[in-house]
Amino acid sequence: MLDDPGLYGPRRPLPLRVGPVPGESTGSFVNRLAHANGLSLAAFLDRVGQGEASAYPERVEKYPQSTEMYVNEAGLRYLAVLADLSPVLLQRDLPSLGAGRLLAGGPEEAAEWRWPWEPVAGHLVRYCPSCGDDLGVGEAVWLMSPDSWQVCLRHGYWSDDARGRGPGFMELAELPETVTAHRLRQELAERWGQAGEELFADSFQVAVYWWTRMPDTVCWVRRAWAAGLDAREMRAAPLVIYPEAAELARAMLDFERAGQRDTTDRSRWLAGVEQLMAGWGVDVAEGRQALLVWLGRHRRGVLAPSSPAGGSGLLLGAGHSRIASRTGPVSQRSCLTWQLGMAAADM
């Protein structure tokens, strides 16, 4: 039994159902549900409550890769009735309907929705088209992703939040090292839980530092060209640095697990990573500073007892934990606070 939408809410579902894709943006789902039932977006929204679609509903409908929809609790109930799904199931699959993203207003408030031109959090990233075909989805699906990219290992696609600039997808057939890197990232997260995710975030941020200063590194230029991208455009950075970031994350894990952190041990680890950098073609002198910052925030760490619920219990240094977030994109999960697109002098 679906929640009662209240006195003024819709009483029955729309005739044709649409299943949400896990991680899908609310705007993407609503567009698909409206179109499946022969409704324009504006006509559909009249059934969901009062709101504003950036004052231009037709633009919102035309550019789902640029904007996201948010509702209050009553609006969630209305949407649940129209979709013939419980609010709990919608919140499970659509991140922007989570409790922390609902608009203000209690259950007795009028249903409201807002459609700001920029998402409140996350990145709108295109869902793999082959996965969409497998599900029988008849139009583009957009995910609300914490990172600005998504990797589909099943079909070998990389997609990002480029918003229509350049190719919509990059095929990874000519970039097997990127596929390997994504698998390694997944393995770190599965084996080491939160610590594995945060160490990858740290390594990715170090690689961002390197790319900002050295975008013409040969292996990165080659990968950008293979993906059909300009080597110096910021969109290319996550894709091209992914392999080095994954390998560096594994080296950081070795450092944390060893638990040997005096000056000699840190120098030995740094020398080993510098050898890796030289092999990758990354200028060692230019890139060392980011590694020194990371070492400074990982001076102390503890290997906690194994925990079935939380990986193997590797706890990172206090300097890391004071800065890194446990959720969000890689830039927030890292103890290294620079951002992709930041001027090199500001890092």
Q: How are the SSEs placed, and which strands pair?
A:
Elements: H1 26-36, H2 41-45, E1 50-52, H3 57-62, E2 70-71, H4 73-83, H5 87-93, E3 112-114, E4 123-126, H6 129-135, E5 142-145, E6 149-152, E7 157-160, E8 169-171, H7 176-213, H8 218-226, H9 236-258, H10 263-280, H11 284-296, E9 302-303, E10 314-315, H12 318-321, H13 330-333
Parallel strand pairs: 1-3
Antiparallel strand pairs: 2-3, 4-5, 6-7, 7-8, 9-10
Helix pairs in contact: 7-9, 7-11, 8-9, 9-10, 10-11
List keywords for this structure.
347 residues; mainly alpha; 3 domains; 3-stranded antiparallel β-sheet; 9% strand
Describe it for me?
The protein is mostly helical and about 350 residues long. The protein folds into 3 domains: about 25-135, no CATH class; about 145-170, no CATH class; about 175-345, no CATH class. About 45% of the residues lie in helices and about 10% in strands. It has 13 helices and 10 strands. It has helices at about 25-35, 40-45, 55-60, 75-85, 85-95, 130-135, 175-215, 220-225, 235-260, 265-280, 285-295, 320, 330-335; strands at about 50, 70, 110-115, 125, 140-145, 150, 155-160, 170, 300-305, 315. The strands form 4 sheets. A 3-stranded mixed β-sheet has the order 1-3-2. A 3-stranded antiparallel β-sheet has the order 6-7-8, with no helix packed on it. Strand 6 and strand 7 form a beta hairpin. The chain is elongated.
Q: What class would the helix/strand composition place it in?
A: mainly alpha
Q: Let me know the average pLDDT.
A: 86
Q: Give the N-terminus to C-terminus distance in angstroms.
A: 54 Å
Number of strands: 10
- In total, the number of domains comes to 3
How many H/I helical runs?
A: 13
**Which parts are unreliable, with pLDDT below 50 for 5 consecutive residues or more?**
302-311
Strand order of the largest sheet: 1-3-2
- Share of residues in helices: 40-55%
Q: Approximately what portion of the residues adopt beta-strand conformation?
A: 5-15%
Outline type = elongated
Q: Could you tell me the radius of gyration in angstroms?
A: 23 Å
Largest sheet: 3 strands, mixed
- H/E topology pattern: HHEHEHHEEHEEEEHHHHHEEHH
